[in-house]
Amino acid sequence: MSIMSREFCYDVVIIGGGPSGSACGIELQKKKKSCCILDKATFPRDKVCGGLLPEKTIHLLHELIPEKTVEEIKKDVMIDCSKSISFYYNTEFQVRSSLQTEFIITERKFFDNYLIDYYKSLGGVIYEGVKIQHIDFVKKKIYLVDGTIYQYQYLVAADGVNSYVRRQLPVKKFQNVFFVEYDIKKEDFNHNSDLTFFVYQGKQLGWSFPKGKYYNVGLGFPKYESNAIEITKAFMSEIGVKNLERYSRKGAQLPNLTIVKPYWKNQVLFVGDAGSFSEPMTGEGIYQALYSGRMAAFSILNGKNVAKKYAKLTKTLRQSKRVLSLFQKKLFSHYNQVFKRLKKHPYSIHKVVDGHIGKRLFNYSNLITFFLSYKLFRDEWYKKRK
Ligand SMILES: Cc1cc2nc3c(=O)[nH]c(=O)nc-3n(C[C@H](O)[C@H](O)[C@H](O)COP(=O)(O)OP(=O)(O)OC[C@H]3O[C@@H](n4cnc5c(N)ncnc54)[C@H](O)[C@@H]3O)c2cc1C
User: Residue 385's pLDDT is what?
Assistant: First the structure.
């Protein structure tokens, strides 16, 4: 790193210190590559999120922080956990299954700071509370409002769903899903420790996750809805949440429905939500953020054909997203039949959730196995053919 007045020069500048940015920084720092993270927030900072970490995410964290065992990482990040899942249609209970893998629930304010602290412990540099004024992609310079300039060789855009970097470039715009959520004290919502999903009015997907003294409860909207808040309030009241007016509401978006090229020309790599890696069925995005962040670092460390290498290393994430988009559309258009089938074969829930969400990414072969073995849509297809 060389410093000339207020101009800094790094091989890699990472914009955003969420899971994707910190994972990228950690891997670069392990190899002593000159890099820094710029974040507009000051850590620890909050982030709207259910905080659900399946087993695959804990294992990925262990790869990122190899000094810690899987059990130590679980203990470090967990504020709650669940080993069962339930589904409701509106308020009507449909089906429940116990799970073999444990789903850890974390608090993002703590989790993201844990990763940043680890990055710093490796000697990583982070500039917090920064305000970017302009990026010159030709000169490869980032100009801050306070006059500081950062020169880079590679830029990693890890600045979330509404990525500032993305908005400066002529790349595909995201089609976002919208969420409204609340942290409800357990005394105001008489529920259990299941991971609970609600299909609400056949259009929205709601959830309730236990989070220590709270339940994290919310509703997702596949497209912008002007009366989303009113619909969420109605949902909360129907499922039995009391004293909603005492709680603060949080809103957020996810790029669930978009699949994009994960780079722009050679020098800009998009990771995490900025690269639209979150998955469309459950909104899971932490695993994808950590994974893509690491792959960006490995591609840069590889040195040659960085963009192509990165696209190749993240292909499984995009493929899984494609499969789950198909799956999600089918589930929503056939939810009656799906629930009927799941009630008959509750074992299939554990198979899908444990095997294909808990332990690894969902892929094409999982989709084919699922359709063939559980006959979810086969009967429907036969009926249509007759
Ligand atoms: C309601 C909801 C529930 C969710 N539940 C889950 C869940 O249970 N499990 C799960 O795995 N995923 C969940 N997700 C998804 C998950 O939160 C995201 O996929 C994940 O946070 C993406 O990480 P990231 O590092 O890409 O971005 P982020 O975590 O969003 O981090 C982006 C960082 O960039 C910084 N930044 C933004 N703009 C700028 C700028 N202009 N300059 C500098 N810095 C900037 C921000 O301050 C932030 O620190 C949920 C999402 C939502 C909305």
Answer: 54
For the chain, how many residues are written?
A: 386
Cα-to-centroid distance, 292 and ligand 1 (Å): 13
Distance between CA atoms of 310 and 312, rounded to whole angstroms? Answer: 5
Whole-angstrom Cα distance, residue 296 to residue 269?
Answer: 7
- The sign of the torsion formed by the CA atoms of 365, 368, 371, 374 equals negative
Helix (H, G, I), strand (E, B) or coil at 69: coil
**Are β-strands 141-144 and 80-89 bridged in parallel, bridged antiparallel, or unpaired?**
unpaired
Pocket around ligand 1 at a 6 A CB cut-off: 15-21, 38-41, 47-52, 130, 132, 158-160, 164, 179, 181, 218, 252, 254, 272-274, 278, 283-287, 289
Listed residues 203, 228, 254: the one ending a domain: 254
Question: pLDDT tens digits for 289-346?
Answer: 999 999 999 999 998 899 999 999 999 999 988 888 877 777 777 777 778 878 887 7
Tokens 């639209």: give the residue.
276
Domain that holds residue 366: 337-385
Residues above pLDDT 90, as percent of the chain:
70
Q: Residue 365 above 80 pLDDT?
A: no
Q: What is the mean pLDDT of the chain?
A: 90
* Mean pLDDT on 101-115: 96
First to last CA, the chain: 70
50: how many CB neighbours lie within 10 A of its CB?
Answer: 23
User: Which residue lies with its CA nearest to atom 50 of ligand 1?
Assistant: 49
Residues 231, 285, single domain; the answer is no
Judge if 130 and 235 occupy the same domain: no
The CATH number of the domain where 226 resides is what?
A: 3.30.70
Separation between Cα atoms, residue 355 and residue 83, nearest integer Å? 13
